[in-house]
Write a structure and sequence with these properties.
With 223 residues, this protein is mainly alpha-helical. It has a single domain, classed as minor pseudopilin epsh fold (3-Layer(bab) Sandwich), CATH 3.55.40. Helices cover 52% and strands 10% of the residues. The protein has nine helices and three strands, in the order αααααββαβααα. Helix 2 runs antiparallel to helix 3. The longest helix has 32 residues. The protein is globular and about 55 Å long. The chain starts with 18 loop residues before the first helix and ends with a helix. Homotetramer.
Length: 223
């Protein structure tokens, strides 16, 4: 027997077989740290409300349903069903993880440039902040269909890296990079305001990037 953990905030203690799933609290939609209209004019209130209360909420609900089905399959020893549920766990679990990071990466008091250790690391690994910004924007623009552009930390190499993930694939779970800054380039993140012009959305989002949050994530993952 083994205990199945998926993107949860559970403690490191291992419970008896299935115990973690029986006692696990359901995932919940996190509150935004600001009002829906707080990021205007860069991201309008209608987009934020739909994105948070509809799209993210759907990932949370579907993740809970899928985990219940997985728990049942695990209890029955039904490996076929466990395997068949993996895509739904990846998609909805990733959607929950990614958006939970995304909301905190944004702030009405954001924009500008990072300071301190994060800025020094950006200069070291990308040459300059302008070069980093250009590269992350280009990677995000270039995502085919739906997905995310990321700034991540490679713990093994001790350096920052830029990456793109398709759909809702979570950065750490699929690449090993620790997520610092994620840019959602699904159309639901910008279409109501920017139509199909993704580059305009990406130009605007730099005005609300919460560098304090990104710097805090960088400091934490370096420990």
């Amino acid at each position: 027997y083994f205990c199945f953990f998926f993107f949860s905030r559970s403690s490191a203690k291992f419970a008896a077989p299935l115990g973690c799933l029986v006692s696990r609290q359901k995932h919940t939609l996190p509150d935004l740290p600001y009002d829906y209209g707080a990021l205007e004019p860069h991201i309008n209130a209608e987009i934020m409300q739909l994105h948070h209360s509809k799209h993210h909420a759907t990932y949370v609900n579907n993740l809970n349903v899928t985990e219940e089905k997985y728990k049942e399959a695990l209890a029955k020893g039904d490996v076929t069903t466990q395997v068949s549920l993996q895509p739904a766990l990846r998609f909805n679990g990733g959607g929950h993880i990614n958006h939970t990071i995304f909301w905190t990466n944004l702030s009405p008091d954001g924009g500008g440039e990072p300071k301190g250790e994060l800025m020094e690391a950006i200069k070291r690994d990308f040459g300059s902040f302008a070069n980093f910004k250009e590269k992350l924007t280009a990677v995000s623009v270039g995502v085919q269909g739906s997905g995310w552009g990321w700034l991540g930390y490679n713990k093994e190499q001790g350096r920052l890296q830029i990456a793109a993930c398709a759909n809702q694939d979570p950065l750490q779970g699929t690449t090993g990079l620790i997520p610092l800054l994620g840019i959602d380039v699904w159309e639901h993140a910008y279409y109501l305001q920017y139509k199909n012009v993704r580059p305009d959305y990406l130009k605007a989002i730099w005005n609300v990037i919460n560098w304090e949050n990104v710097s805090s994530r960088y400091a934490t993952c370096k420990k």
